[in-house]
Structure formats: C-alpha cells, structure tokens
Specification:
The protein is mainly α. It has two domains: about 1-125 and about 190-390, no CATH class; about 130-185. Helices cover about 80% and strands about 0% of the residues. It has 15 helices and no strands. The protein has helices at about 1-35, 40-55, 60-70, 80-95, 105-120, 130-155, 165-185, 190-220, 225-250, 255-265, 275-295, 295-305, 310-330, 335-350, 360-390. α4 packs antiparallel against α5. It is globular and about 70 Å long.
Length: about 400
C-alpha cells in the first residue's frame, strides 16, 4: 500500500510540474511572442529547452525548502503529501484553463498547508518566529519611509508633483530593503515567511529593474532610428527570454523535486532528504513538457493584455525577470516566477507612462488571483484530505 501511495504521489508531483509548465509557459515566452521575435511554436520550444536546462545549473536548495520548510518533517506522511499535491494540481489546472496566471509555487505551498493542518493541526506547520516577523515588519516600514522622504525631497527640488506617487515610493523602499538585508547577511528568512514577504517583493523587484533597464535603453537610443532599434532588440529579446526561462526552470522545477524527495523520505525509501538525480531529471522533463504544450490563454493575457510591448521593452522585462529569478534561486528563496515576470512586464510598460501604458484593470485581476492562491488551495486541500481520510484512513 505504501509503495502504491508513493508511486501515486510521484505521479501527482510530476503532474503538478506539468501543469506548472502549462501555466507558466507564458512567463518564459510572453515577451518573445508579444514582440514577434519568434513565432509561438519556436518560442515554446526554446522555453521548454531552457526550462529543462535551468535546474541542472542551480542547487536544490529550494527543493529542500519545499520538502522540509513548510510542514515539520516529523508530521509528514505519504497520505498528507498526496492530498497536498492533488489540491495544488487542481488549482493550477483550473486557473490555466481560465487563462489566469497564478503562482504554481504558492499553489503547492497552500496545498501543503491545507493538508498539514487537516492531518496534524496547526502545530505541524513551521510558523516563523515572532521576533523575526517583527524585525522584517520594522525593516519594511523604515525602508519604505526613507524611500518616501527621499522621493519627496527630490520632487520638491525639481518642483514636481509628489503626492500621487508616495505609495509607489513606499513600495520601492520596502522592495529594496529586504533583499539588501538578506544579501548582507543581516537577516535570514525561509519557509512560509519568505513566501509571504516575496509576494510583495518579487513583482516589485521585477518592475523596478525592468523600468530602470528600459529607461537606460530609451536614453541611449533616443536619437536612433526606431526600425534599427527593433532589429537590434528582437534577437536580444530571444536571448533574454531564454535567460528568463532558465531562471523559471531552476526555481519552479524544484517544487516537484522537494515533494518527491519528501515522499520518498516519508515512505522510508530514503533515510535523509537528498534529491536523487533521477528526481531532478524527471521534474525537469515534466515542466518542460508542460511548457512545450503551452498555456495559450495565459500566454495571450501576459503577452497582449497587460501592456503593448516593443522589442526594447521585451528585452527589459525578460532580463529583469531572469535576474530576479536567478538571484533568488541562488539564495535559496522560493519566489513566484509569475509575480516576478508580471511585475517586469508592468515595469517595461510603465516606461511609456505609468498611468496610461499599463492596463491596470487586468493587473488587478491578476493580483487578486495571487492573493487568493495560497488560502484557496489550502481550503481545497483541507477538504480533499478530510474526504480522503474518511474513506482510506
């Protein structure tokens, strides 16, 4: 029976990575398709290959976070992991069919939370220490406040209007302070706290980097022929999109790796949490296959509905998204690739005008799905586990 449950769990974990690639295909190729740098089929093939390559270039630190950093390993059972995976797969598949770009990573974390609470109560969850939460909160407030004061001072110096953009300035300060503290070694966050904090930070990091890269390109190319700029940046967008897809594969493919390895440990197949090479290859293959088939409704929303993307903006967004994913993956922080890259696309659009160039109604719809993903998946999975336990346990 245990071997059957383990086998089913592995299948569901790979199915999760498959629907992850199905939904997140848009993350990797939206800018390439929007700028017509490649036709959709070639763009999907390129993304699939890059997604396959990504996990082989990075460590498996995120897999360890997923497998051991959300639910206490002592409470993990094969049945709990099975229910968690099923809830996450359902949520990502349904949202993909509806054309809503969501975070597959957050769906999985919500699934683990729901199953863990249903199986062993809230005590099974590895909640962050309260003093660390307070420290992070205070750091965000200080960083945001300093950013607002600097913004007001610069605006007054330049005799500009500042009242309407103070909240954005606050978010910029919050976005910068936390990664700076992590990189400097002043704080160390992981598990649920890292996930929640980076719901805000990862899209803002993508937005800020993309906006700055776009402004630099606009300044350098302001006297250049637009046709020449398009010709130069179309191939660069392909390269940047490939870089972004490598980062996506490196971050998101580790979700299934963490669950499969946790399943093998819980079932007694492995004595310690160490990701086998066949798990790495199988997870890479599943996410690449999902990307290959493509989530075309999500791709259309990311490529065409948020903002009109020109080649230089496609390069800016892809490069910014790739940088965020690569740095955070290297630090072992599981961020949402969807959030980072959506933010980068918004930042690219904002170079043509913050208010007019970005369709904020579409953005609000996407953000609402982000906020709902963890609690919605947790509730769905809690119900699934209760039903499962009543029949089989």
């Amino acid at each position: 029976m245990d071997l059957l449950i383990i086998g089913l769990g592995i299948f569901l974990a790979l199915a999760f990575n498959f629907v992850n690639g199905l939904n997140d295909a848009a993350n990797s190729i939206a800018t390439i398709i929007a700028t017509k740098s490649l036709c959709p089929l070639k763009a999907v093939l390129l993304a699939a290959f890059s997604n396959l390559l990504g996990p082989l270039l990075f460590s498996t630190a995120i897999a360890a976070t997923i497998g051991t950093g959300i639910v206490s390993p002592g409470f993990m059972t094969t049945h709990m992991l099975l229910a968690g995976m099923l809830g996450a797969v359902i949520w990502v598949f349904v949202t993909s069919m509806l054309g809503i770009p969501v975070s597959s990573s957050h769906a999985l974390i919500g699934g683990l939370l729901g199953a863990g609470i249903a199986a062993a109560g809230v005590g099974a969850i590895l909640w962050p220490a309260w003093d660390l939460v307070v420290t992070i909160g205070l750091a965000m407030i200080v960083g945001g406040t300093c950013s607002v004061l600097i913004y007001i001072a610069i605006s007054m110096l330049l005799k500009g209007k500042w009242k309407g953009n103070t909240f954005l300035a606050f978010l910029v300060g919050v976005t910068i302070i936390v990664p700076a503290l992590i990189i400097s070694g002043s704080i160390e966050i992981s598990g649920i706290l890292a996930v929640v904090v980076f719901i805000v930070i990862s899209p803002m990091l993508g937005l800020i980097l993309s906006f700055l890269i776009g402004l630099v390109i606009m300044h350098l190319g302001k006297n250049q022929n637009p046709s020449l700029l398009n010709a130069v940046f179309k191939p660069l967008t392909i390269l940047a999109g490939s870089f972004q897809a490598v980062g996506h594969g490196a971050n998101d493919a580790q979700n299934a790796m963490g669950i499969i390895t946790a399943m093998l440990v819980a079932g007694g197949v492995l004595s310690e949490f160490s990701v086998p090479i066949w798990v790495i290859l199988a997870s890479c293959g599943a996410i690449s296959l999902g990307t290959l088939l493509g989530g075309w409704r999500v791709i259309d929303k990311m490529a065409n509905k948020i903002t009109k993307i020109r080649p230089y903006q496609g390069f800016s967004a892809s490069m910014a998204g790739g940088l965020v994913l690569s740095v955070m993956t290297s630090l072992g922080v599981p961020v949402s690739t969807t959030h980072a890259i959506t933010g980068a696309i918004m930042g690219a659009g904002a170079t043509r005008g913050y208010s007019s160039a970005v369709r904020w109604g579409v953005v609000r719809e996407i953000v609402a799905a982000w906020v709902l993903t963890i609690p919605a998946t947790a509730v769905v999975t809690w119900i699934l586990y209760v039903l499962y336990a009543s029949v089989f346990l």
